[in-house]
Amino acid sequence: MSKRRPLVAGNWKMNGSRAESAALVDAVRRGVGPGARVEVALCPPFILIPLVAEKLAGGPVSWGGQSLDTHKSGAYTGEVSGPMLKDYDCAYVIVGHSERRALYGENDGVVAEKFGAAQAAGLVPILCVGETLAEREANRTEAVVARQLDAVVNKHGIASLKNAVLAYEPVWAIGTGKTATPQQAQDVHRFIRGRLAARDQAVADGLRILYGGSVKSANAKELFGQPDIDGGLIGGASLNAEEFLLICRAAD
Ligand code: PEP
């Protein structure tokens, strides 16, 4: 069990009508008690953020964006900036999700810029890292995760991680139903923490590192029971309130 306050964040991806999202967010809010040890956050699509913000205001559940632009404002058609997310009281924003990296060409440099833009706007970035199946099979997991982390730490400094959350999300486990075993996940989480500890022990000790990749209520408890796993980033299962709340309870 982690010594840091666990966080379970729901990534709705591009899902949810207004009515479905309203019902989902109401159910999550009802299910999370004010005294819970676990912190719960919801990251809906941009267009649903005002609805979610209105429903969650004043309660224990936080909310955030799934991405942001690197600029504050201007001629960037289709984009949403950090200050815009902050204006809707977002606490978090996901950066470097594997879908953004793979489908929208966001390389390590762009991810590092987005990380900085998030912090500049007063948001806490949830920085995603993780290897593909081919990279795991070629024994390159640690090298890939190290490269993704270093891109951010070399640009913004190790102290920038005081105000950030990491998510280890093996690409082969996202949305596939194939979860990393608790030991596979723990091994990478320990590697990440150890690598950061070599730069700053206190920052590494305080950093929340979430696991993401086909987390369900059936496997959450064992994953969250690992010493370096501080909660989860939950995709598909966050669209079902009952299932999502069971996952949150597994981290409590
Ligand atoms: C995600 O999108 O970050 C994710 C972990 O998805 P899923 O839980 O569906 O694998």
Structure report:
By secondary structure, this protein is α/β, with parallel strands linked by helices. It has one domain: Alpha-Beta Barrel (TIM Barrel), CATH 3.20.20.70. Helices cover 43% and strands 15% of the residues. The protein is globular, with a radius of gyration of 17 Å. The model has no long low-confidence stretch (mean pLDDT 97). The structure holds phosphoenolpyruvate. The site of phosphoenolpyruvate has 14 residues, from strand 8.
Oligomeric status of the shown chains? single chain
Count of helical stretches:
11
Computed CA radius of gyration, to the nearest angstrom: 17 Å
Question: Could you give the distance between the termini?
Answer: 10 Å
Strand content: 5-15%
Q: Secondary-structure element sequence?
A: EHEHEHEHHEHHEHHEHEH
According to DSSP, the number of beta strands is: 8
Number of domains: 1
Second-tier CATH architecture = Alpha-Beta Barrel
| Helix/strand class | alpha/beta
- Biggest sheet, spatial arrangement of strands: 1-2-3-4-5-6-7-8
What share of residues is helical? 40-55%
Average pLDDT for all residues:
97
Largest sheet, in brief, is: 8 strands, parallel, barrel
Instruction: Report the bound ligands by name, code or SMILES.
Output: phosphoenolpyruvate
Quick one: CATH superfamily? Aldolase class I
CATH fold name: TIM Barrel
Q: In the CATH hierarchy, what is the class?
A: Alpha Beta
Coarse morphology: globular
Low-confidence stretches: none
